[in-house]
Amino acid sequence: MAIMLLVLEGCRWCTTDACLEHERIALLHLKPFFVYRNPLQSWVEVKGSDCCKWEGFECNTTTRRLIQLSLISTKWEDNWEYGMDNRNLIVWYLNASMFLPFEELKRLYLSGNAIGGNLENEGFGKLSFTLSNLEILDLSYNYLNDSILLSLSELSSLRYLDLSYNQFEGSSHLRGKLSLVRDNNIESISNQGISIVFIY
Protein backbone atom coordinates (compact mmCIF):
# COMPACT_ATOMS: atom_id res chain seq x y z
CA MET A 1 0.00 0.00 0.00
CA ALA A 2 2.82 2.37 0.89
CA ILE A 3 4.52 1.64 -2.43
CA MET A 4 1.27 2.30 -4.32
CA LEU A 5 0.80 5.64 -2.55
CA LEU A 6 4.38 6.58 -3.39
CA VAL A 7 3.79 5.79 -7.08
CA LEU A 8 0.57 7.80 -7.12
CA GLU A 9 2.29 10.72 -5.46
CA GLY A 10 5.04 10.59 -8.09
CA CYS A 11 2.50 10.54 -10.92
CA ARG A 12 0.77 13.57 -9.45
CA TRP A 13 3.94 15.53 -10.12
CA CYS A 14 4.40 13.95 -13.57
CA THR A 15 1.24 15.56 -14.91
CA THR A 16 0.83 19.31 -14.93
CA ASP A 17 -1.24 22.00 -16.56
CA ALA A 18 1.82 24.20 -16.98
CA CYS A 19 3.84 24.53 -20.17
CA LEU A 20 6.82 22.31 -20.88
CA GLU A 21 9.90 23.39 -18.96
CA HIS A 22 12.27 23.25 -21.93
CA GLU A 23 9.93 25.50 -23.92
CA ARG A 24 9.77 27.96 -21.02
CA ILE A 25 13.58 28.08 -20.94
CA ALA A 26 13.72 28.54 -24.73
CA LEU A 27 11.36 31.51 -24.45
CA LEU A 28 13.60 33.11 -21.85
CA HIS A 29 16.52 32.77 -24.28
CA LEU A 30 14.45 34.67 -26.86
CA LYS A 31 13.33 37.40 -24.47
CA PRO A 32 16.44 39.68 -24.63
CA PHE A 33 15.91 40.18 -28.37
CA PHE A 34 12.32 41.42 -27.99
CA VAL A 35 12.26 43.78 -25.00
CA TYR A 36 13.08 47.12 -26.65
CA ARG A 37 9.55 48.52 -26.22
CA ASN A 38 7.82 45.71 -24.37
CA PRO A 39 9.51 44.41 -21.20
CA LEU A 40 7.52 41.13 -21.37
CA GLN A 41 7.13 41.22 -17.60
CA SER A 42 5.09 38.03 -17.51
CA TRP A 43 8.09 36.10 -18.90
CA VAL A 44 9.68 35.28 -15.56
CA GLU A 45 12.67 33.14 -14.65
CA VAL A 46 10.78 31.08 -12.09
CA LYS A 47 10.94 27.32 -12.46
CA GLY A 48 7.48 25.90 -12.97
CA SER A 49 6.00 29.21 -14.11
CA ASP A 50 3.21 28.48 -16.60
CA CYS A 51 4.38 30.09 -19.85
CA CYS A 52 1.02 29.16 -21.39
CA LYS A 53 -0.23 32.23 -19.53
CA TRP A 54 2.58 34.49 -20.67
CA GLU A 55 2.00 37.44 -22.97
CA GLY A 56 2.04 36.53 -26.67
CA PHE A 57 1.97 32.81 -25.97
CA GLU A 58 -0.74 30.26 -26.79
CA CYS A 59 -0.60 26.57 -25.91
CA ASN A 60 -2.27 23.43 -27.13
CA THR A 61 -4.77 22.72 -24.34
CA THR A 62 -3.98 19.00 -24.41
CA THR A 63 -0.21 18.78 -24.87
CA ARG A 64 0.57 22.17 -23.24
CA ARG A 65 3.01 22.86 -26.06
CA LEU A 66 3.38 26.20 -27.81
CA ILE A 67 1.20 26.62 -30.90
CA GLN A 68 1.34 30.41 -31.28
CA LEU A 69 4.02 32.97 -30.49
CA SER A 70 3.21 36.63 -31.06
CA LEU A 71 6.02 39.16 -30.69
CA ILE A 72 4.68 42.14 -32.62
CA SER A 73 6.06 45.70 -32.71
CA THR A 74 8.63 45.24 -29.98
CA LYS A 75 10.82 47.88 -31.65
CA TRP A 76 8.12 50.47 -32.34
CA GLU A 77 5.07 51.67 -30.45
CA ASP A 78 3.10 50.46 -33.45
CA ASN A 79 3.80 49.67 -37.08
CA TRP A 80 3.01 53.23 -38.16
CA GLU A 81 6.44 54.19 -36.83
CA TYR A 82 8.05 52.00 -39.46
CA GLY A 83 9.87 54.13 -42.02
CA MET A 84 10.19 57.14 -39.72
CA ASP A 85 13.52 58.47 -38.48
CA ASN A 86 14.89 55.48 -36.55
CA ARG A 87 18.57 56.36 -36.40
CA ASN A 88 18.83 54.99 -32.87
CA LEU A 89 17.23 51.70 -33.84
CA ILE A 90 19.65 48.82 -34.31
CA VAL A 91 18.86 46.34 -37.07
CA TRP A 92 19.71 42.85 -35.89
CA TYR A 93 19.98 39.34 -37.31
CA LEU A 94 17.83 36.48 -36.12
CA ASN A 95 19.03 33.03 -35.12
CA ALA A 96 16.06 30.99 -36.33
CA SER A 97 17.39 27.91 -34.50
CA MET A 98 16.12 29.47 -31.29
CA PHE A 99 12.61 28.44 -32.36
CA LEU A 100 13.52 24.74 -32.75
CA PRO A 101 12.23 23.70 -29.28
CA PHE A 102 8.69 24.69 -30.28
CA GLU A 103 7.85 21.56 -32.27
CA GLU A 104 4.08 22.14 -32.38
CA LEU A 105 4.30 25.81 -33.37
CA LYS A 106 1.63 26.72 -35.92
CA ARG A 107 1.64 30.52 -35.93
CA LEU A 108 4.64 32.82 -35.56
CA TYR A 109 4.21 36.61 -35.61
CA LEU A 110 7.42 38.65 -35.72
CA SER A 111 6.15 41.85 -37.29
CA GLY A 112 7.85 45.16 -36.41
CA ASN A 113 11.09 43.93 -34.85
CA ALA A 114 13.80 45.57 -37.02
CA ILE A 115 15.02 42.14 -38.17
CA GLY A 116 17.54 42.53 -40.99
CA GLY A 117 17.89 38.84 -41.83
CA ASN A 118 19.24 35.61 -40.38
CA LEU A 119 22.60 34.83 -38.89
CA GLU A 120 24.76 32.88 -41.33
CA ASN A 121 23.71 29.20 -41.48
CA GLU A 122 20.89 29.89 -39.00
CA GLY A 123 18.06 30.67 -41.41
CA PHE A 124 14.44 29.57 -41.38
CA GLY A 125 15.36 26.54 -43.48
CA LYS A 126 16.68 24.89 -40.31
CA LEU A 127 13.10 24.79 -39.04
CA SER A 128 11.68 22.91 -42.01
CA PHE A 129 11.78 19.43 -40.44
CA THR A 130 11.25 20.19 -36.76
CA LEU A 131 8.52 22.81 -37.21
CA SER A 132 6.47 20.78 -39.65
CA ASN A 133 3.22 22.32 -38.36
CA LEU A 134 4.16 25.95 -39.00
CA GLU A 135 1.38 27.40 -41.17
CA ILE A 136 1.49 31.16 -40.55
CA LEU A 137 4.63 33.31 -40.54
CA ASP A 138 4.39 37.10 -40.28
CA LEU A 139 7.66 38.94 -40.94
CA SER A 140 6.14 42.25 -42.01
CA TYR A 141 7.57 45.66 -41.01
CA ASN A 142 11.18 44.52 -40.74
CA TYR A 143 14.31 45.18 -42.82
CA LEU A 144 14.54 41.89 -44.67
CA ASN A 145 15.91 41.65 -48.21
CA ASP A 146 16.20 39.02 -50.93
CA SER A 147 18.87 37.08 -49.03
CA ILE A 148 16.26 35.54 -46.73
CA LEU A 149 14.06 34.11 -49.48
CA LEU A 150 15.95 30.85 -49.99
CA SER A 151 15.58 29.79 -46.36
CA LEU A 152 11.91 30.84 -46.27
CA SER A 153 11.14 28.73 -49.32
CA GLU A 154 12.16 25.59 -47.42
CA LEU A 155 9.23 25.94 -45.01
CA SER A 156 6.96 23.57 -46.92
CA SER A 157 4.14 23.62 -44.37
CA LEU A 158 3.47 27.38 -44.72
CA ARG A 159 0.01 28.48 -45.82
CA TYR A 160 0.37 32.19 -45.13
CA LEU A 161 3.52 34.29 -45.36
CA ASP A 162 3.47 38.05 -44.80
CA LEU A 163 6.55 39.90 -46.05
CA SER A 164 4.96 43.33 -46.43
CA TYR A 165 7.01 46.45 -45.69
CA ASN A 166 10.51 45.06 -45.98
CA GLN A 167 13.42 45.81 -48.31
CA PHE A 168 12.70 43.48 -51.24
CA GLU A 169 13.18 44.50 -54.86
CA GLY A 170 9.47 44.18 -55.69
CA SER A 171 6.47 41.87 -55.45
CA SER A 172 6.94 40.29 -58.90
CA HIS A 173 10.60 39.69 -58.14
CA LEU A 174 9.63 38.22 -54.75
CA ARG A 175 7.19 35.80 -56.32
CA GLY A 176 9.77 34.70 -58.86
CA LYS A 177 12.42 34.05 -56.23
CA LEU A 178 10.12 31.86 -54.16
CA SER A 179 8.77 30.00 -57.18
CA LEU A 180 12.23 29.12 -58.43
CA VAL A 181 12.95 27.14 -55.28
CA ARG A 182 9.57 25.54 -54.61
CA ASP A 183 6.72 24.66 -56.94
CA ASN A 184 3.93 26.43 -55.05
CA ASN A 185 0.74 28.19 -56.01
CA ILE A 186 1.65 31.71 -54.92
CA GLU A 187 -0.69 34.65 -55.12
CA SER A 188 0.94 38.04 -54.59
CA ILE A 189 -0.95 41.22 -53.75
CA SER A 190 1.12 44.37 -54.16
CA ASN A 191 0.29 48.04 -53.76
CA GLN A 192 2.63 50.92 -52.94
CA GLY A 193 5.40 48.82 -51.50
CA ILE A 194 3.12 46.24 -49.89
CA SER A 195 3.95 42.65 -50.79
CA ILE A 196 1.79 40.01 -49.15
CA VAL A 197 2.31 36.45 -50.29
CA PHE A 198 -0.19 33.66 -49.69
CA ILE A 199 0.97 30.06 -50.11
CA TYR A 200 -1.72 27.42 -50.52
TrEMBL record:
Record flagged with keyword Translocase: no
Signal peptide region: 1-18
Leucine-rich repeat-containing N-terminal plant-type domain ranges (all copies): 21-60
Protein name: Leucine-rich repeat-containing N-terminal plant-type domain-containing protein
Lineage: Eukaryota, Viridiplantae, Streptophyta, Embryophyta, Tracheophyta
Statement: the UniProt record of this protein carries the keyword Signal: yes
Keywords: Leucine-rich repeat, Repeat, Signal
Species of provenance: Gossypium darwinii (Darwin's cotton)
